[in-house]
């Protein structure tokens, strides 16, 4: 072993050493522990290193930082490293091997999912958000499973439990299929990137599709819910009104921003940007008189979001907690008025109710589909029919808004309602 000379380092001596000049470093060998060096960089970081030789190879290893590792601890560790080196054992190589093994052991399904979402380019922002929610909630049993131990039986257990009725509620075939699709997409990507040798789910059959929901609200139910929304107020009651009037999706309305409205003081148009639309295409909705009246009741917050409990800083959320309040209010109103209550319904049923309402009012199919931002017709038809249908869409929403006003017993206004400004 080569001889190392230096000074006897102490805690006080180490503390007094200042930072090195920019682009330089200071090295202070310790006289009591051969090979031990204190290295100080230009940022003032003080780190312990040890030099040693294994056979003909001379190398060095990082022991730790001062003051987390004291002078005496650094000496003990340096002596231990050099004793191992004299026996022909390279401590640094062993540590690197252990770190690599630990890294391999930590490669779970969660790590694959995180890597996938880092590069995932969604067709619409909601797609990525919904997939991440599915992974976080329904695929939780896979979270800590090592990637090489994933098996289709694990995913089958998850989807079977979701698709079967249980004590907490009815079957959720839609959630089962989303869980299967999310897990399959993640592992297929991992295989394509060389992070997995094979797809553990490739022989698994996808869960059966549940029967599509056909629920639409009757006129009397719309009237009852509207009263409940009036009682509930902003933001959730008001948000549900706009869901019905604009035939949009829950998150499209919940994350609505004031900048998406053409003129918040006298609104006529609301444009959902492409990154927030499910199909990745911007969607402009002419606001009916009824929709403008709803917006007029919403005070401007300091933040960007229209529907918020945090002064516009964050969008409204927690729908599973809010909707039971709507149902309870509607049930109380029905009991008080001695009428049949509202049957089981979901927020998405409002969109289906609006689309059905368009058809009932005689709106042409190609117009009604554009009202809900569906790309209808064949590719050939879309290639040759370049008409924007702007006037027809505006007329459809105006007629639907008037119909909702009639159903709920309101009196439609003929003027544009100005929104209150924030003081």
* First-residue to last-residue Cα separation: 78 Å
Radius of gyration: 32 Å
Mean pLDDT, rounded to whole units? 84
Q: Largest sheet at a glance?
A: 4 strands, antiparallel
Structural domains: how many: 3
The sequence of SSEs as H and E is: HEEEEHHHHHHHHHEEHHHHHH
Number of helices: 16
Percent of residues in helices comes to 40-55%
In the predicted model, the low-confidence regions spanning at least 5 consecutive residues are: 411-423
State the CATH architecture of the largest domain: Orthogonal Bundle
Shape: elongated
Strand order of the largest sheet: 1-2-3-4
CATH top level class name of the largest domain: Mainly Alpha
> Which homologous superfamily in CATH is the superfamily of the largest domain?
Intergrase catalytic core
| Total number of beta strands | 6
CATH T-level fold name of the largest domain: hpI Integrase, Chain A
SS-based class:
alpha+beta
Q: Top keywords for this entry?
A:
423 residues, alpha+beta, Double Stranded RNA Binding Domain, hpI Integrase, Chain A, 4-stranded antiparallel sheet, 6 strands
Please sum up the structure shown.
The chain is of the alpha+beta class. 46% of the residues lie in helices and 9% in strands.
